[in-house]
Amino acid sequence: MRILLVEDDTLFAQGLIQSLRNEGYSADHCANGKSALLAIDMKEADLIILDLGLPDMDGIDILKHQRRTQPLTPVLILTARDSTDDKIRGLDLGADDYLVKPVDPKELLARLRVMARRLGQFGSSTLEVEGIALNLANNTVEFDGKVLDLPKKEYMVLKALMENTGRIQSREQLEIKLYQWGEEVSSNAVEVHIHHLRKKLPTKFIKTVRGIGYIVGKN
């Protein structure tokens, strides 16, 4: 899942971005409303965490724009505005959840997991395909009773494929899940991760659809 964090407090944003990435999310940061609108219009975020007190515009205006252009993308408001009226307004305008700072990172991550389930990406804490079990709560992968030692990027590739079981994922789609906006990506990065995964997983678990991408599960 790719998350866009809209937050003007740089230190807070850096810590939160790192927590999100440690949990296996691909996370990007915008520090003002203008850059947030541009990022939203790129339509690459699966979920948005939105601060309301931005330096150049009210976050509510960003929420309104997002709901007009991408009504299905979940939005979690994370703000210091703690009045009941602010909460009601944010939720009535289309936010899926509302948290007041300061927030316990564990609670925030739990809220994100709930929102991800609403997206239909997964209905429980474990994905299982052809004997491979991926635990979304603790970011582990088991096969044949053993926990596989997967580097972060390999885990994220496998997670993206298993969340889309039976659906082809192109190299470009996988790159979006793996890398941040503006991050340089080598031309064969995804292929390298797939190659390493195939050495650790059953033969033909990850299938190549020539000229299109990769798939797990029935084609």
TrEMBL record:
Positions of the Response regulatory domain: 2-116
One GO CC annotation: protein-DNA complex
Record-annotated OmpR/PhoB-type domain positions: 124-218
InterPro entries: CheY-like_superfamily, OmpR/PhoB-type_DNA-bd, Sig_transdc_resp-reg_receiver, WalR-like, WH-like_DNA-bd_sf
Keyword ATP-binding: no
GO BP term, pick one: regulation of DNA-templated transcription
SUPFAM superfamilies, A to Z: CheY-like
Keywords (A to Z) from UniProt: DNA-binding, Phosphoprotein, Transcription, Transcription regulation, Two-component regulatory system
Keyword Transcription regulation: yes
Modified residues (4-aspartylphosphate): 51
A Pfam family of this chain: Response_reg
Molecular function GO terms recorded: phosphorelay response regulator activity; transcription cis-regulatory region binding
Residues that span the membrane, as ranges: none
Residue ranges the UniProt entry marks as DNA-binding: 124-218
SMART domains per record: REC, Trans_reg_C
PANTHER family: REGULATOR OF RPOS (PTHR48111), TRANSCRIPTIONAL REGULATORY PROTEIN TCTD (PTHR48111:SF67)
Record's protein name: Two-component system, OmpR family, response regulator
Origin species: Pseudoalteromonas denitrificans DSM 6059
